[in-house]
Design a protein that fits this description.
Layout lengths: L1 H15 L3 H8 L24 E6 L5 E5 L4 E6 L2 E6 L5 E6 L5 E5 L4 E5 L5 E5 L2 E2 L4 E3 L5 E5 L1 E2 L13 E6 L4 E8 L12
Antiparallel strand pairs: 1-2, 2-3, 3-4, 5-6, 6-7, 7-8, 9-12, 10-11, 11-13, 13-14
């Protein structure tokens, strides 16, 4: 008699829950590169990343990728991968400033970093909660998404108002926009 009670439950369960969510891995087949539906040809440029997050292309068409798990930023030229930075604390977002210097959001340390042309690192801002995505304007203003400032954490307080976009200009920092939920990237576009 137990079987009679469980069948209506299963019917009710699949009626209330969209079954494609449960069976889509079984129905989708292989996730092979040949099955990608794209508007243009697709090729593997580099592989072996543990958790790639940020991707940006410089003026010479070299591709830079941050790997959050390994703490590295690499440069891809053609089919070759070159290490740029190692030992970072969860690098996420990448961007280039107008001078061609690489900007890195180091999520776990709460820092916004800039890789100088001589190879040294400059801390542009610190004390940020989970900086993730970066965009740079032509005038040098940098926009970075964060979950708040770390100022109240010593007292056990945390700013939970949602993600904000911080504007980092020459010598000043201010909130540009706020109260975002689940922000996954930012980009700068010059108005026409």
């Amino acid at each position: 008699m137990q079987l009679g009670r469980s069948i209506p439950f299963l019917i009710l369960f699949f009626t209330l829950h969209p079954y494609p969510l449960y069976f889509s891995p079984l129905l989708s087949g292989s996730s092979d590169l040949l099955e990608i539906d794209a508007l243009a040809p697709v090729e593997i440029v580099a592989e072996g990343f543990r958790e790639p997050m940020g991707v940006v292309v410089d003026a010479s068409d070299a591709v830079f990728v941050s790997d959050q798990k390994t703490g590295e930023v690499v440069k891809i030229v053609g089919n070759e991968v070159f290490p740029v930075l190692k030992g970072l604390n969860n690098p996420v977002g990448l961007a280039f400033d107008p001078q061609g210097r690489l900007l890195i959001a180091e999520e776990a340390s709460g820092k916004l970093l800039r890789l100088e042309l001589n190879g040294s690192l400059t801390v542009l801002a610190q004390g940020l909660r989970q900086p993730r995505w970066i965009a740079a304007a032509e005038d040098g203003t940098i926009f970075v998404s964060i979950k708040g400032l770390k100022s109240g954490e010593e007292n056990g307080e945390e700013d939970e108002e949602g993600q904000i976009i911080l504007r980092v200009g020459t010598g000043d920092i201010g909130i540009f926009a706020g109260d975002f939920k689940g922000l996954q990237g930012i980009s700068f576009h010059k108005s026409i």
